């Protein structure tokens, strides 16, 4: 085989279903069209009652936190916003764009910060989050998708956390190549000490800081910057799985469910450009619009400016326009 033939063969293996040549790191993101859902009766949904009870109590506590907000000082409200942003970045810039898609590289100090921020978000450790997210992209809207939006808004938003995983999710997750996560010392350290890190970062620090530094009552500090903030971060993330897979336009690929949803983009600090993201999952910005409505992209760009991040992967404008013409819904 000649060198040219070898290159062509390699590119053929890396082509997406729509003919785009993907970068080396994007092949795991490509949808697996060879997967076929099993015919016949579906396995019964086994409710995890512990999760049902905990999620119910959490949302009741957050609702009470809304009524407590007027009692909070301005510093406490600013602290709540800061904790929200840190938590969200631990998911968006960390577990999602860095560790799930490897769309940019981060220096050790930034990886440590994102690992700590991810513990504040309390949405499973980085390893499990990234593994499930890779399964979600590879088998989107099938039984192997952890939060399959075809099963309805409630399931894709929160219901998937209240029942046992479909056997296909577990099976496909075990077959993924996860060496990059297993060899990342920050990911493995966080996984080893996850429960302790969550207790400290998600619950103790958000509560203690307002009480100790400016005399906020522990009651207000617990219900506003802790429970309410945590619940808002959870729901902002879940909206990407639910609303952004159901409502909005599809200017890049009309053949897939994920949509462009501005409300989700705002609430999830940049993760609502979802039709673009599922079309080009390896793009660090998750959209073609740079920092517009995309605080996570602004954060990554700033980290690059500081020398703490590098090698941002970006789709060329020519490739985006070609894809719009070929598979877009012509809504943009």
TrEMBL record:
PROSITE patterns: FATTY_ACID_DESATUR_1. One of its GO terms (biological process) is response to fatty acid. Its EC number is 1.14.19.1. The chain crosses the membrane at residues 52-70, 76-95, 193-213, 219-240. Residues 30-39 have a biased composition (Basic and acidic residues). Its cofactor is Fe(2+). It is found in: Endoplasmic reticulum membrane. Residues 79-282 form the Fatty acid desaturase domain. One of its GO terms (cellular component) is endoplasmic reticulum membrane. Keywords: Endoplasmic reticulum, Fatty acid biosynthesis, Fatty acid metabolism, Iron, Lipid biosynthesis, Lipid metabolism, Membrane, Metal-binding, Oxidoreductase, Transmembrane, Transmembrane helix. It catalyses: octadecanoyl-CoA + 2 Fe(II)-[cytochrome b5] + O2 + 2 H(+) = (9Z)-octadecenoyl-CoA + 2 Fe(III)-[cytochrome b5] + 2 H2O. Residues 1-39 are annotated as: Disordered. It is a multi-pass membrane protein. Belongs to the fatty acid desaturase type 1 family. The histidine box domains are involved in binding the catalytic metal ions. This is stearoyl-CoA 9-desaturase. The lineage of its organism: Eukaryota, Metazoa, Chordata, Craniata, Vertebrata.
